[in-house]
Specification:
Elements: E1 7-11, H1 16-26, E2 30-32, E3 44-49, E4 55-63, E5 76-78, H2 82-94, E6 99-100, E7 110-116, E8 122-128
Parallel strand pairs: 1-4, 5-8
Antiparallel strand pairs: 2-3, 3-4, 6-7, 7-8
């Protein structure tokens, strides 16, 4: 059996506060300390936890120079309901980030939106359709 441990997303050097503004403050993930020697490389790690405390999602932001944002590749995060999807979109917009609903009903069985982090990387958030 395979499970996904984390997704690596690139960011420019020295912009950890911008990463926190999107991934922690707008998206609502918890920042976790990078271990040992990895902390010296810069970047930041973020996690979402399930109700039982298990890690539900993990995104690592790593320095990439020269930096080029991911235009199509992206992490996709799942929320539990349409109400949660709309609330998270409002939270992201309230933090100053654009939310795009153009593909809301284009993935069978799901509703979704796309947004971009502080560096222009694409992020998808979706929920099963009721």
């Amino acid at each position: 059996m395979l499970t996904l441990h984390h997704v690596q997303v690139s960011m420019p050097e020295g912009r950890e506060d911008d990463a926190r503004r999107f991934y922690r403050d707008a998206l609502g993930l918890d920042e976790v300390a990078k271990p040992g020697v990895l902390a010296q490389r810069g970047g930041a790690w973020f996690r979402a936890f399930a109700d039982d405390g298990a890690v539900a999602a993990e995104i690592h932001l790593g320095i990439d120079e020269p930096f080029v944002p991911a235009k199509k590749a992206h992490p996709a995060l799942v929320v539990e309901s349409t109400a949660a999807l709309e609330a998270l979109a409002a939270r992201i917009e309230g933090a100053g980030f654009d939310v795009n609903w153009a593909e809301r009903h284009t993935l069978d069985g799901y509703e979704r939106f796309h947004c971009r982090d502080a560096f222009g990387n694409r992020v998808e958030v979706l929920t099963p359709e009721p």
